[in-house]
Amino acid sequence: MISTLVAGKLTPLLGTGPAWFVTGILFAAIFLAIAAGFAAVAVYAERKIASFIQCRLGPMEVGPHRYEDLPFERLLPAGLGRLVNLLLRVLGFFLSLLLFPFTRRIGMPPGWYGLGTLVGDGVKLLGKEDIIPREADSELFRLAPYIVFTATLAVFAVIPFGEGLVAARFDAGLLYLLAVSSLGVIGIVVGGYASNNKWSLYGAMRSVAQVVSYEVPMGLALLSVCVSVGSFDLVAVARAQRGWIWNWHILSNPFLLLAGVVFLFAALAETNRTPFDIPEAESELVSGYNTEYSGMRFALFFLAEYANMLVAGLVASLFFLGAYSTGLPYLDSLRLLQPFVLLAKAVLVVLLMIVLRWTLPRYRVDRLMTLCWKGLLPLALIALFGVSLVAAQETLLSASRAWKAAWFLITLAFLSSFLLQTRKGLGPMPARTGVPPRNNSPQAAAPTAVVATPAAGERKPR
Amino acid sequence: MTESESAPAATEPLTPEEELFRALKEEFGEAIRELVSAASPYIVVEPARIRDVAFHLRDAFGFDSLMCLSGIDTLGQKHSTKPLPPGSPRSAKPEPIGEEIAVVYHIGSVTTRRKVALRAPLDRRTPRLPSVSSVWKVAAWHEREAFDMFGIVFEDHPNLTRILCPEDWVGHPLRKDYEMPKRYAAWEHARRPSAAELAEPESRVAGEDASRAAEKNGITTENSR
Amino acid sequence: MRRLNGNRHFFEGDTLFVNMGPQHPSTHGVLRLLIETDGEVVTKAEPKIGYLHRCFEKSAEGVSWEGVIPYTDRMDYVGPIGNEWPYCLAVERLAGIEVPERGEYCRVIAAELQRIASHLLAFGTYGLDIGAITPFLHAFRDREKVLDILEYVSGARLLYNYIRIGGVVRPFDEKATAMIRDFLSDLATRLPEYHQLLSYNNIFIERTAGVGVITRDQALTYNITGPNLRATGIEWDLRRNDPYGFYDRFEFDVAVGTGEHGVLGDCWNRYIVRLIEIEESMRILEQAITMLPTDGPFWNYKRNLKVPPGETYARAESARGEVGFYVVANGELKPFRVKAKSPCFCALSGFPEYGTGMLLADVVATLGSIDIVLGEVDR
Description:
Chain A has 462 residues and is mainly α.
């Protein structure tokens, strides 16, 4: 794993000699477990959230209905099988307690809210036939999913999950992050090209255009954070946000808030999620670059997508949402809590991405580019410029508490006005100017068809 | 819709169809043969002049849309669709009908709300008549369908190929003397890759063939001409 | 490493030929579009149809007059009532059969319910084409209720065989009208949600406004009817302009494109016309269920129907436009010739003209907005 090597090479913490290799493997294993486990849970969560938005129940059946029907009693010795079933019951009970806020019931219903899909999906994907089209370039075809997945996983290496809890700390953290996270698109291009399918090729081309474009505003948005912190080191970025909640970058000044918003959009595009999922737009490109993939190779792409979402969430939390800080200085000293705080924030960002996906239609490819180059890029530049000004003010004038408080209040004002605007957008629709009322008794119907005149404000067709 | 079932006396006002019939008769003379007052009246037109009549109907009378274009094979149709004259005895049979393939045009107007039907009777052995796809563009597909189903040849059609049946289909299914094949005739003669070719994917003879066929299909798109 | 030399037509000059369909998520059935693309821009699109061809016109020549009705169901399988009606109109006209008053009202109710169901489906699948998955399931939730009502009266959920020659097979009774009332009050609260979810979503408007414009002249020369024609601003609805059944007894407006976003005749206007038509259908339904007689004959049934020689062309406004039937009778127990005119067939024939010169995503949007059903195109 690249992450392992990088982690080993560059971590002074781990020292040299065989020890770095072992620790590196350990870190890689942990990250792999986090990514895979998160993907499984996120798929389930996404399905449940989607069903909630769509007024249905989602998976409800895949889970134990009657414990007696499960194969354990048949496969295992009698006593052991019963014990496993008993353990399952207990597990179900505790799970139901965990789910109580959402379900308002204690005890698992038959079917376990479809929790069996967590396992079932994985087993199904592993067991599926692995098809490589005859005309495909089979070496590249097989290589592609690993490139995508590795690139995603490698990002984990530099993310500080807590004070001193980072696999690889080095000064050029941001550069590494940007460089490695954009490697994934190479895998997508390779996969799309090697499939020898025109839809895959389209998906790959779109993906390149999209990722390469969105790298720019994303990089600028992250850069403005680094300007504010004064370092490319991600640990320094995290440390700068300790203490009270107004130290979080997104609240510390309005330009960083702007940078955060730019980053959120860019991250949505980088992870190929709706409304920017044009590389795999299923109604246009069948399934885009992964059309020809099946079984485990498809699962790797899939896993990478979810891991990518987690990475996007982690980076967003790290750079803008206070990293592992809770916003209360008293709690920050609890080191054990820190990784969970960071992960919780990342999950919240991921949930936002999921909700957006199930609410919005898809952008068109040219609009996507317009949004990037004419929308996000100027905004990111403004943010960078503004952050530089603020940084200059802090170094040249003063960094007093009054200044800080002023910036915090301005940011709050911006944030609340933004949220209010959004709320207004979600409010009741303006009355539709539909069919004008007219005398419509059949006797009065004119002998010739009425040709309606186009309304004012007519736009020219493209 | 209840149209006048008998020829009206001279004092009665003309129905819209009769008016149209007279106007067309003045313009085209012998090419307009007769007005048949079925449940939906139709005007029988000389097939060779059908396009001129269609143009005239569109430009002079505002018939802006071709609602339907149907082929019909009258083989085995014992009776004409003309109603019996009023007062004829119960035992009277409608006049017999000749064996022909005909094209029936149902034409309407969105602006004047009028409707009219034209009928062009054709020889069963060599059904040919001019295409009206230059008058109403929708006719292009309708005529392809009539060609597919009846083998009617439309002259000056931009692309007269089968539309609903496969391109290698044999016969014209809606003709009354069509016999339903037990097998897909074209498939019987199709070249299938031999066992050796299937066993050796690297030779890819069959693959080349398929790709060449696809290429041919791809390049000769019908609208390009 | 093997090169991709198996497909020599893969890169052909500057353009790429792509088969869109017959298995493609957004061709709404088994349509094949042969498209030629220059980058993302589609320079040529040629619909290839016939994958669902059953030649029902041939089958119809071999079955009784009543027996054709199920075949017509299978034309437009998401709006079968709209096909049954014109066929029955044609046969009734030829055979001189009168439809009882109650039967006529039942036909109107069934047809309008069907129109709502069909437009809801069009709304949902159009959302899918644009990439919004949620509206689809919302629409299906409501469509389900229509299917429940129609199942209650006809016994079937998709292919109803409900309108028969001389009337309908079962009338709407009190329970059915109560179900309709429930449904209407439900739907009235849903429609604003739909507008919020999709119609006035900025991304949706960007994707559809001004895209795939069908001009009035194109609409007329390709005989594009129904919502697609009305979206161009031409107020033409057979229910109003050539009334059949009891449509002259109801108050309703003919929905035309509003031009609120984009230009008349574009995707957005075609879409919004369907949603307005749902409202108008609700108006008709409200009137119809109050005017519906509670007793009396509803089906003027003729056993072993023999239709006297004659021919006619009858048309009716289905959810997709003008469905016409050219029926020729030979004085026998079965039809001599049945020809169905399909509105989707006509609309699709113009696709090379109005569906090219745009981005691939716009082709999908345009194809979705004309709301074709391939069962009807191929017959």
